[in-house]
Design a protein that fits this description.
Rossmann fold, 18 strands, GMP Synthetase, Chain A, domain 3, 2 domains, 11 helices, 4-stranded antiparallel β-sheet, 7-stranded mixed β-sheet
């Protein structure tokens, strides 16, 4: 059982903090609800970080939307552990959603290794947690496995959640991973994947559906601009209408819609499936290859811990996918074995000619794959090799 509140090492007693506070303090009673409340910056995975200013109004509305039953649905009896920093879209809005529902907050602090997080979940009886896929992929590999019996579910986002991870967590821990989608610009929650009563009965089909980004939450609208190649557009009361002190990007908010930069399609009538970021698609021989789908296929291999796919220049096809693969610790994996595995799962022309085995996929401060670093490294190598062949 967890320690009583205020008795953990280094913990402060909330009631004592309140009692010791300034007796004369009073919240301002003339604060306009549209006054700025917080400022977060985009992670900059595809360009320069841009500021998004949240108002008190948008933060409250986002909390109400997040706590809808088929969104995050936090309750007073929950112990909520966001494995997300506040600078990453206000920790996905979870501290505010927890406050409005009366839920207990458990903050991991600087100890963010999967083993430490597993111990904290067990000792604090965490019922709800959220973080990027890399966190949970690391936890899957822990031996001995942590005690996650207190968890009712994990919400996962920040990047596409591999179907293999959703399957693995359910089979190993009996804990469902629920995929959610959003951006810094959407405060961030915009959609949650919860298959309804009309979901497919076939287990494989349900897992396929759960690996999508789900349905938009109430008050958020979406559309897909087919003329721009299938870009997803969203709007809503907590979706940004401009970047902070940056007029150069106003075209992204034209007509009240936010151009997300994500290429999407609608499956099963109302579920959003992100195909890729517009800047991450690989155009090979005039045809598009989704880096997200290819990454998911690679990460389904039992010997693969992480994988990121980037486009590299190719003299014949224009671009080809380069798979950057991190094998699981202690495992031996070669390119031929991986290609044979992929041949049964994806189109033949999607199979990467180039597979690079690396120690770690570089990540941003919020845990997303930093493909800019990989592009710079391997695209430069590909161009140098092509130049050498031409000279020869």
């Amino acid at each position: 059982m967890p320690d009583a509140p205020g008795t953990r090492d280094g913990a402060l007693d909330y009631e004592q903090l309140v009692a010791d506070g300034d007796e004369g303090f009073a919240f301002p009673d003339d604060l306009d609800e549209r006054t700025a409340a917080a400022l977060c910056y985009t992670s900059g995975t595809t360009g320069k970080p841009k500021g998004v200013l949240y108002s008190h109004r948008s933060t409250v509305l986002h909390s109400i939307g997040a706590n809808q039953a088929d969104a995050l649905g936090l309750r007073e009896r929950d112990s909520v552990m966001p494995v997300v920093p506040m600078f990453h879209a206000n920790a996905w809005g979870l501290p505010y959603a927890a406050a409005t529902s009366g839920a207990r907050l458990v903050l991991p602090g600087p100890r963010m290794a999967p083993g430490d997080l597993g111990e904290l979940i067990a000792s604090e009886q965490v019922t709800f947690t959220a973080g990027v896929p890399t966190i949970w992929q690391g936890m899957m590999r822990l031996d001995p496995a942590p005690d996650l019996s207190s968890l009712k579910e994990i919400v996962c986002g920040g990047s596409a959640v591999p179907e293999s991870l959703i399957r693995g967590f359910e089979q190993k821990f009996g804990v469902p991973i629920v995929q959610a989608w959003g951006m810094t610009e959407t405060s961030p929650l915009a959609s949650v994947c919860r298959p309804g009563p009309d979901a497919p009965e076939d287990a494989d089909e349900r897992y396929r559906l759960r690996a999508t980004q789900g349905r938009v939450v109430p008050l958020v609208d979406f559309t897909i601009d087919e003329e721009s190649g299938g870009e997803l557009l969203v709007r809503g009361p907590w979706v940004a209408r401009a970047y902070y002190e940056d007029d150069s990007q106003q075209a992204r908010f034209e007509g009240g819609w936010l151009r997300t930069g994500d290429v999407a399609e609608v499956v099963d009538g109302s579920f959003i499936k992100l195909v890729d970021r517009t800047k991450d698609l690989v155009k090979s021989g005039g045809e598009w290859i989704s880096s997200v789908e290819l990454e998911n296929a690679v990460m389904a291999h039992p010997k693969v811990m992480e994988a990121a796919v980037v486009a590299v220049a190719d003299e014949k096809w224009g671009e080809r996918p380069c798979a950057c693969v991190v094998p699981c610790e202690g495992e031996t994996l070669d390119a031929d074995e991986l290609r044979s595995f992929l041949a049964e799962r994806i189109a033949k022309w999607w199979i990467p000619d180039r597979i690079e085995f690396i120690d770690e996929v570089p990540k941003t401060a919020v845990g997303k794959f930093d493909k800019k670093v990989l592009r710079k490294r391997f695209a430069a190598e590909a161009e140098a090799e092509a130049a050498g062949e031409t000279a020869a």
